[in-house]
Amino acid sequence: MESPFLIVSLIFLCFFSSALSSSVVTHLPGFQGPLPFYLETGYVEVDEEHGGEFFYYFIESENKPAEDPLLLWLTGGPRCSAFSGLVLEIGPLKFVAAEYNGSLPSLIYHPYSWTKVANVIFLDSPLGSGFSYSRKYEGYDANDTIWSEQTYKFLIQWLVEHPQFISNPLYIAGDSYAGKIVPMVAKRILDGIDEGKEPLLNLQGYLIGNPVTGGKVDKNSQIPYAHNMGIISDNLFEMIQKSCSGQDYRTPTNSQCQMYLNSFTNLFLSEINEAHILEAYCPESRLNHLHSLASRTSSKRILKENQNILHPPPFPDLSCRCYAQTLAYYWVNNNFVRKALNVRKGTIKEWIRCNRHFPYAKENKSNIKCHLSLLQRGYRALVYSGDHDLVIPFLGTKQWIKSLNSSIMEDWRSWHVGGQVAGYTMTYSNNLTFATVKGAGHTAPEYKPQECLAMLSRWISGAAL
Q1: In terms of pLDDT, which residue wins out, 267 or 464?
Q2: Exposure check for the chain: N or C terminus, fewer CB within 10 A?
Q3: Which CATH fold would you assign to the domain 4-216+363-460?
Q4: Which among 378, 454, 379 has a CA at the least distance from the CA of 423?
Q5: Rounded to whole angstroms, how far apart are CA atoms 404 and 217?
Q6: Which helix (H) or strand (E) holds 261?
Q7: Could you give the residue numbers annotated as active site?
Q8: 171: closest CA among 245, 262, 101, 90?
Q9: pLDDT per residue over 264-283, tens digit each?
Q10: For residue 362, which of 74, 77, 123 has the smallest C-alpha distance?
């Protein structure tokens, strides 16, 4: 009798022409010894007209890959590389926090990786993110719909080449701006299931962290959050409330409202670390760090090895959390690293962590309808927020969740890790769970990796947080 996996893959092949190339990576420069997990990198064509291909990193679950869920991870921005998710947030690698001296930055194993309990695809998307590329410039013209459609196409074609994962529980996941796109991708999968194209695709739900919705609630919640946290005075808060009443703070319609919002931005946000209000404000140094190495005998070797860096990023102080983001440039753009990752020569001149050089239209004003469509059909959702995030404050996230008008099944309570409060959570009758991560910022796993892994493990297994 033929395997059901074989039958499903043959059905898929009848409808989709897969253009996937992949390689298994066993060693990485800067990491001592063989990788203690299965890593695959590759490309999938998602735009035949313009020759657009998504680059991905796939890491098998370190537990039971044949049974554990499959997570498709999208990174925000838009156009921030999924490598950020892999090495700065939820993946099994992280950089050694050491001052850059011209040699290749070192990597170590991250014990709180989400790959402990799930198979994870880290996807460079949309085109122009990380190592994803288009042969024609027109392919870089993206928006919310294009991103979600091409991600859907990627997933289907990836599963054609990996039929052993078709029956695994499938979750779409991401954070920040990708929190807007994740429900759109899940909704597109649901539409495909309804159309009978993927009857056996095992979509179970989605999860989003510190998420953008696209609505005015994201920006507008910054003012009350800043007031509640003692960042702005009662007087300024009251003046903003009075002069901007009923307005979208992104587009104020009177000069008085604009004046008070400018005060908020210029006097307060300019000196606060929005990603985490309790951590140091770390403006980038104006000194080009490679130039500071010019007098050293190794500088020519350094420049040669990092010849893919066309615009070296400035370094913040070593004490700043974002120092690792800069180390990523010097690691990913190294020629030996590119060869190890099997990056195609000539496709991307310089890897940029968050690429702002290509056009992107945020045309979908809100994704609330996608949430409703999925939740009404019984799909599960986990929404989590770092409670010290001023970029997308949890107050706004709570507000749009409340607008879904679902009954509360379990009211606000604490959840714990290691005997300590890890945050607060509440669950709803529509299968949605909301959780704050105590002491975390934007994005939560960067600050509280152990707690976030525990949160994922419990939720994905169906247990209470």
Answers
A1: 464
A2: N
A3: Rossmann fold (3.40.50)
A4: 454
A5: 14
A6: helix 255-263
A7: 176, 389, 442
A8: 90
A9: 988 788 889 999 999 998 87
A10: 77
